[in-house]
Amino acid sequence: MKVISNSVETTQKLAEDLAAVILPGTTILLNGELGAGKTTFTQGFARALGIKRPVKSPTFTLVREYQTDQFMLYHLDVYRLGEEGGAEDLGLSEYFNADSVALVEWSQFIQADLPQAVLVIDLARLDQGETDQREINIHAVGAQPTKILMDLEQRYGTSN
């Protein structure tokens, strides 16, 4: 699924539509350079799930936890681990379980800890100017993420 977003609101609307069809046990990988919109996407996703408190990138804490009505939401930003790794002893794989949803920024730094079935969201700025235009590509690996992506395509296609 490919979406061109021309605003923060459009990016967050896509995130809200994803939140409406998300299932516990889902891991979402948010890929993109600094400033691509990973945290903006997460903010829209969390707000749609009823999270009232501010959602900020957990760059210095690695993980922020939020309780929704249906499951725990974990927002991981593992940028600090960098290419040197160091995640082996942190137990990050515990966040990827059947009773929660995890959004992971900079997932390439913890590949060994990630589940095999994931929803992958690639965000890229389309210009270097002052606009908020982004290209968002979403693909699924595994049965549950594929079902979620199909539901999202139906929902976003009819609500956008």
TrEMBL record:
Pfam family, one: TsaE
Entry keyword S-adenosyl-L-methionine: no
Example GO biological process: tRNA threonylcarbamoyladenosine modification
Superkingdom of the organism of origin: Bacteria
Primary localization class, coarse: cytoplasm
Keywords: ATP-binding, Cytoplasm, Magnesium, Metal-binding, Nucleotide-binding, tRNA processing
InterPro entries, A to Z: P-loop_NTPase, T6A_TsaE
GO molecular function, one term: ATP binding
Entry keyword annotation includes S-adenosyl-L-methionine: no
Gene3D superfamilies: P-loop containing nucleotide triphosphate hydrolases
Annotated localization: Cytoplasm
GO cellular component terms, semicolon-separated: cytoplasm
NCBIfam families reported in the protein's UniProt record: T6A_YjeE (TIGR00150)
Family statement drawn from the similarity comment of this UniProt entry: Belongs to the TsaE family.
Name of the protein: tRNA threonylcarbamoyladenosine biosynthesis protein TsaE
Organism from which the protein derives: Weissella minor
